[in-house]
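Support request, please re-run this one:
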Amino acid sequence: MKISTSFLFDRATERMSTIQNKLATTQAQMAESKQILSPSDAPDQAAAIQRLKGEVQRQDSHMRTLDVAMRRYTAEETALSASNDILIRMKELGLQAANDTLAPDDRKAVGVEMKALRDQLLSLGNTRDDSGNYLFSGTRVNTPAFAEGVNGEVVYQGDQTQTRIPAGVERTVQFTRAGTDVFSRVVRENPDQSTTSVGFFNALDQMIDGINGSQTNKIQQGIADLTQMHDSLTLSQAQNGSDQIVVQSQLDVLSETALRFKSTLSEIEDLDYAEAVTRMNKEMMAMQAAMGSFAKISGLSLFDYIRG
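Re-run finished. Output below.
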């Protein structure tokens, strides 16, 4: 078998080119910190990487939505708790004003504090979340939930629409809340057994008028109204707490799921630096050996053979 000089040169350059390509690939992998630089390197693994990245993005998107909901619930909880405290104080003042030993001027002093507390409740009814949206306007988040007219009567400007967001498998939680569900109307029973529905703030105003006018019947009615208002707000607080528990539970599940996906993705995609450094050193040694061999081969000739 005859082996020509050109054949030796071709084999040597081909080997050096192959080693050089492997070395360049290893160096690129180390620069990118990735095992797979293009889908053609490993089509099956590339497809798995894309699928896992899509799952991670979906989990992150869902978590961001629930994080927004949690911040909203926290703002609602603060507003509801403050409102309940005010109602408790108003009931204390109402019981004080109902005392027959209280002079008219003393009742008017109580009425002044009641009016200030009523205005504070109105302000809490128009609480905003971190994004500047009104909490109790339903879906009309850019409109204040309650507004006071020129005659002092408070009207609700939101809507009754409720939006819900997914929080687990086949489970949703309420995202928007109507102000009339929180600051709900009171139902009064008339002497003829019929009932009359009165707005939350209108009932408070009537009670304040009764205190200022020393009208015992209006004061007593106001105390009964305050009991209904307190019960309604307490129910809203319970619903808010329940929604927070559900959302936090789902956030924990999503966090664990996302961590599992990211761990699997890392195993497939991320580079093992220890293995890559060892491989690069081997390829560099092979490259040096190939270059040394080529140098010796290229120096051989027929005269060297004859001299030998």
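Residues 54-264 form a domain with the f41 fragment of flagellin, N-terminal domain fold (CATH 1.20.1330.10). The beta strands are 146-148, 154-156, 164-166, 172-174, 186-189, 195-198.
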